[in-house]
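**User:**
If convenient, please work through this fold.
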Amino acid sequence: MNQNPSHTEKELLIGVAAGNEEAFSRLVNLYRNKVFSHALTFVKSYEEAEEITQDIFVKVWANRHRLPEVKDFKNYLFILGRNHLVSAIRKKVMDTISNNDEEDIPGTLLLPDTQVEYKETYRHLINGLDRLPPQQKAVFTLSRMENLSHAEIGERLGISKRTVKFHLVQALNFLREYLRYPGLLLIVWLF
């Protein structure tokens, strides 16, 4: 019984437009990780990316009356996110300029240290993944790196959704502790 994903999405959009909070929650669950990942790529801060993600979904809710007209929600969300990110980055640049006494603004904005820190954190994450039991590693990888749902992971690995959730929680708890070192960024995949 495969449902047409666009049909299901259209039903969700109509439900959200009608003020159905459960439909909105399902819509957020479907797209939150993608919006968050996109935001984190640009702002390089977990807290800022989280705030931007929340702001974007608040805008979706505030403009829910328009959702039945939306033909391609992914595109709608992308444009909404892009516009919000541009505003956030513009604000960050203005804050940097106003707080920077030096004339070397372009050098400040390139931030090669951030790229090095990201690479070190990613390497540290991979080391942490290698310490996980095989089932936890497989579940985490499928969930956070391949963006599969619990049902899809369960089907692929031949385990129940409840077991998938258990392994994912165990992996996340271990990796959060493993990455709890000064100076390391918290990777988006953990959330």
User: Anything to note?
Assistant: The chain has two domains: 5-99, 111-190. The chain has a mean pLDDT of 77. The chain has nine helices and no strands.
